[in-house]
Amino acid sequence: MFYKGSGVVHRDTIVKIILTILDKINLPNKIKAFIIKSMHMQAPINGFTLIVLSNFRVGICIYLVFVFVFILFFYFNGCFITIVEDKENFINIADPYLYMTNSELTDENRYYSIIYIGIFYMIVSTWILLYKFKKNY
C-alpha cells in the first residue's frame, strides 16, 4: 500500500508548494486549516449536488473532474490536501466515517475508507448520469 514511487515524490512537492503559499497568508494556522478542511469536506457534497441538479453536460464535466481527482488519489498514494491538513494537526476527512463504523483511526483504515467512499460515490454518480443520459437522449 505505502510505496515511495514518483507519485509520492510529486505529491510531496505539491504539499511543499501549498505549505509555502499558506505561510504567506496572514491568518492563524487554525483558521487556515479550518478553511481547507471545510472546502475539502464540501467539494464532494457540492459536486454530487451539482451532478444531481444540473443538466447532463454539466454533470458529466463535474464527474470527469472527480474521476481525475480519484485517479490522482491512487497516483499520489493518498490525498495531498489531507497531508496539508495533517500538518495543522486536524482530523482526517475520513475520521467521521471511521467513528461511525467504530473503526480504529489508523492511516491504513483512513486510506481504504476513502477508497471505499470514492467507489461508492462514483457508482452512485454514474447511475445518476446514466439515468439523465437515457432520459434526455
Quick recap of the structure?
Helices cover 78% and strands 0% of the residues. The protein has 6 helices and no strands.
What key attributes describe this structure?
137 residues; mainly alpha; 6 helices; 78% helix; globular
Q: Given the helix and strand composition, which structural class is it?
A: mainly alpha
How far is the N terminus from the C terminus?
Answer: 42 Å
Supply the number of helical segments: 6
Beta-strand content: under 5%
Overall pLDDT confidence:
87
Helix and strand run: HHHHHH
Radius of gyration: 17 Å
Describe this structure in words.
- It is a single chain.
- This protein has 6 helices and no strands.
- With 137 residues, it is an all-alpha fold.
- Helices cover 78% and strands 0% of the residues.
- Helix 2 packs across helix 3, helix 2 packs antiparallel against helix 4 and helix 3 packs antiparallel against helix 6.
- The mean pLDDT is 87.
Sequence-ordered SSE layout with sheet pairings:
Elements: H1 6-23, H2 29-53, H3 56-75, H4 80-87, H5 95-100, H6 107-136
